[in-house]
């Protein structure tokens, strides 16, 4: 029997798009098909498996129990096919595309990627930065460094490092009020982004849960690395991960006035599609992190720190 008769690839492709987008219409737009054609392919697939794959409700569809079981395997299958085609084009191990937040990229990756490339001269690296959580099916990326709890459906997640934080500022700014000796002294100075929930967590841990932050001028810079630069320039106090700024601390450009650091349960993770776990360039980067970071894989996904 021909493969096309055994395996309805086109219908499976349509099924994956509909399930991901939760819409026959949007799936048709993505695939360049009419809604009628999309519906026809889904009906063909349902006839092939002998089960309804979607629950059809007014203005909404959702996967049936059978559809929920089928989707992960279909997604993995198409990822494997994409990987195989990439191998044939000699690009699978040619360029590693990493997606990361601006802060992690500038304060850790940029300092260590040279070592990775020395150890893996056949792999070029392209680093993309954004604060947005990417969709691997719609974004050109091999892996990402994300902040969260390590639970993302369809993705393999490896713990990278804890994300703890504490107030930091320039010594000149601290001297402008005669020094910062207790937490409430911080309120005498400009706080960079007082709406950041880290501030409330830190002040609560310091014993001041009711501290007034709403009256402070709100400035959002979009990334911790930008806030650190503003703090170095003396423009205010930033709440930062101190391990990201060893040079600034060593040079005296930044000080950490209190030993207290806090966490919000959200840490850094290496993630990539489950189906691509055996790709050579992903294995190489995974091993690089394992050899470079003692904390790598120190905590399983979903565990409480």
TrEMBL record:
GO biological process: DNA-templated transcription
Signal peptide as annotated in the record: none
Keywords, sorted A to Z: DNA-binding, Transcription, Transcription regulation
Domain HTH lysR-type: 7-64
SUPFAM superfamilies associated with the record: Periplasmic binding protein-like II, Winged helix' DNA-binding domain
Keyword Membrane attached: no
Sample GO molecular function, one term: DNA-binding transcription factor activity
Any Pfam family the entry gives: LysR_substrate
Role played: Transcriptional regulator of the ttuABCDE tartrate utilization operon.
The protein's name in its UniProt record: HTH-type transcriptional regulator TtuA
């Amino acid at each position: 029997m021909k493969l096309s008769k055994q395996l309805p690839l086109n219908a499976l492709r349509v099924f994956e798009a509909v399930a991901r987008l939760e819409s026959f219409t949007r799936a048709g737009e993505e695939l360049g098909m009419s809604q009628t054609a999309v519906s026809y392919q889904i009906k063909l697939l349902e006839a092939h498996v002998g089960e309804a794959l979607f629950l059809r409700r007014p203005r909404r569809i959702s996967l049936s129990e059978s559809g929920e079981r089928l989707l992960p395997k279909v997604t993995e299958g198409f990822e494997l096919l994409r990987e195989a085609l990439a191998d044939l084009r000699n690009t699978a191990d040619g360029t590693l595309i990493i997606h990361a937040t601006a802060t992690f990229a500038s304060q850790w990756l940029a300092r260590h990627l040279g070592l990775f490339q020395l150890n893996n001269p056949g792999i070029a690296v392209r680093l993309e930065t954004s604060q947005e959580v990417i969709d691997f099916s719609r974004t050109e990326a091999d892996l990402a460094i994300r902040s969260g709890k390590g639970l993302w459906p369809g993705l393999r997640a490896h713990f990278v490092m804890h994300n703890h934080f504490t107030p930091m500022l320039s010594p000149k700014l601290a001297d402008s009020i005669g020094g910062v000796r207790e937490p409430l002294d911080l309120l005498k100075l400009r706080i960079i982004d007082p709406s950041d929930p880290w501030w409330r967590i830190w002040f609560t841990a310091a014993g001041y849960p009711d501290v007034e932050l709403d009256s402070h001028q709100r400035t959002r810079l979009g990334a911790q690395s930008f806030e650190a630069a503003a703090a170095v320039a003396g423009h205010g106090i930033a709440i930062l991960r101190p391990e990201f700024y060893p040079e600034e601390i060593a040079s005296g450009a930044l000080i950490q006035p209190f030993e207290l650091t806090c966490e919000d349960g959200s840490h850094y993770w290496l993630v990539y599609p489950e189906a691509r776990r055996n790709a050579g360039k992903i294995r190489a980067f995974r091993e690089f992190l394992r050899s470079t970071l003692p904390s790598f894989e120190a905590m399983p996904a979903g565990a409480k720190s």
